[in-house]
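S.,

Sequence below, as promised.
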Amino acid sequence: MFDEYSVDKIITFGQKLWDGPFLKLRGNNLSLTGPGTLDGQGAWYWPQGQAVTKPVFFKLNRVNNSTLSGFTLKNSPFRTFSVGNSNYTTFTRLTLNSTAGNSVAKNTDGFDLSRNDHITIKGNHIYNQDDYDSDTVTGLLVKDNVIINSDNGIRIKTITGLTGLVNDIAYIDNKVVNVKNAIVMHSDYNRTKGGYSGIPDSMAKITNIKIHGLSGSAKNLYDIVANPDAVAD
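The prediction came back faster than expected:
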């Protein structure tokens, strides 16, 4: 049995330089539905550049057996969803729209995932300037999503100097439209600098990755800088 909650109107968040999040969710058997809109007012933050601290929009930590569906998140100042330590949770029929920041929005990741198991991301529309999926996960299904005007469509990045596991990931029947890089895999992400180091020395294992039915348009199909000692299949 689910504890049910809804976003049924437009909610606009204030403007303040801090690390956020605007919203935090934790618990078991939760259902959060639409059809409302959450507006992070990202246009106030984006022109200030990457040197200032911007809030994460929606953080999920230790969320299990839950579903988020049918609402809109627009104008994210920074990462849209940050999901950690969560299991058997589904994101479906969501709209993530940061198009107001064309050319100036940075690090507005659609889904930033870490230390999760059996997360499903299905049937969402993401209009975004940065990437769609990143960091360390196992048992992830990403299916029937559309990613539009993004730097990256599908991205797996692992952090330099650390071990970990990215395993059993399936990307099925997704579409990218006007993205820079359709598929990205990097073993050289420097968390301190917030970018790639050029030295793929992360020892996080990347195994059993499946991409099937990816369609659409991208400037580059691949951007891969991987540690051959840590990547297989």
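The chain has a mean pLDDT of 91.

Coffee later?
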